[in-house]
Design a protein that fits this description.
By secondary structure, this protein is of the alpha+beta class. It contains 4 helices and 16 strands.
Length: 292
């Protein structure tokens, strides 16, 4: 009996032998290239809610906190996620930033005895330094926004925590993924410099060794998004997931709906090279960390 069934969008269905698992094949009817699925290998030590290849993420709207529901492929809820926003503390941080910027600007332009050319230079310096002071002070005063992954909406059982490592980030920002017991699983890194033209996230070990990455699906689309924005959802930001050696692991795609809905599809990762707990955490950050 055949172990793999491959269905093509043209309507053809093929029964394949197990040795074809994970291979890229061509449909002889429509000539589409399709990747055969594999026999899903259960991971004994992994919680059953993570032992799958497709996760559906939906962000709740009209809530103060960032809240997500994670569903199985059949639409059954399997996880509940929260990321607090701390609106009052954030407003206070911005207020401190405004005070700091005002002090810097006032200090540079309030010297009455300065010659006219020097006064002009000081005023220009104040205009340059005031925004820097606002950014540094407000970012340093804002609370860290850790993410908590619960088994369900009751929030009685914590499964994962995504800890924001820095308040102030310039070149990059990192998050540490841990179990409920505090065991570190991975470090998730957003690189602002390398992601200037094409957004990029990297999954690293505690020693900084790269394990996988999530990159915007197209450089051309990425540049268009920088110029035109999301364009009413038509230029949705999708990511491809790659192993450290460049092998495809899956995709993280936003669906064209009124609400934010995402599909984390890891069926290309037949060998389960990417820990599914890490993949779910990465998917959450690809939305909330990118403020999409």
């Amino acid at each position: 009996m055949s172990a793999i069934v491959l269905a093509c969008p043209c309507g053809e269905v093929y029964d394949l032998k197990p040795e074809y698992a994970g291979r890229l094949l061509e449909c002889p009817v429509c000539h589409r290239h399709l990747r055969a699925g594999g026999l899903r290998r259960p991971t004994p030590d992994l919680d059953s809610v993570f032992d799958r290849d497709v996760f559906l993420l939906r962000q709740r709207v009209l809530t103060i906190r960032s809240k997500y529901e994670v569903w199985a492929e059949d639409g059954r809820p399997i996880l509940y996620v929260e990321r607090p926003t701390y609106p009052i503390r954030t407003l206070l941080a911005y207020a401190l930033g405004v005070v700091a910027a005002s002090i810097v600007f006032y200090w540079t332009v309030s010297e009455p005895s300065s010659p006219a050319p020097l006064s002009g230079l000081l005023a220009l310096l104040g205009l340059l330094l005031a925004p820097v002071a606002f950014f540094v002070v407000s970012a340093s005063a804002r609370p860290k926004r850790h993410v908590t992954v619960y088994r369900d909406e009751s929030r009685r059982e914590v499964l994962l925590r995504i800890l924001q490592d820095q308040r102030l980030a310039v070149a990059f920002r990192t998050y540490t993924l841990t179990t409920a017991a505090g065991t570190a699983l991975a470090r998730l890194r957003r690189d602002y410099v390398r992601g200037l033209f094409r957004k990029r996230w990297t999954v690293e070990t505690e020693t900084g060794q790269g394990v996988a990455s999530a990159v915007e699906d197209s450089l051309v689309l990425s540049l268009l998004r920088r110029v035109l924005g999301p364009l009413f959802g038509l230029l949705r930001t999708n990511f491809v997931l790659l192993a450290a050696d460049g092998a495809a692991l899956g995709e993280f795609n936003r669906k064209l709906t009124l609400l934010d809905r995402y599909v984390l599809d890891l069926r290309e990762d037949v060998e389960r090279r990417l820990d599914r707990r890490v993949a779910v955490a990465l998917g959450i950050l690809l939305d909330t960390g990118e403020r999409r």
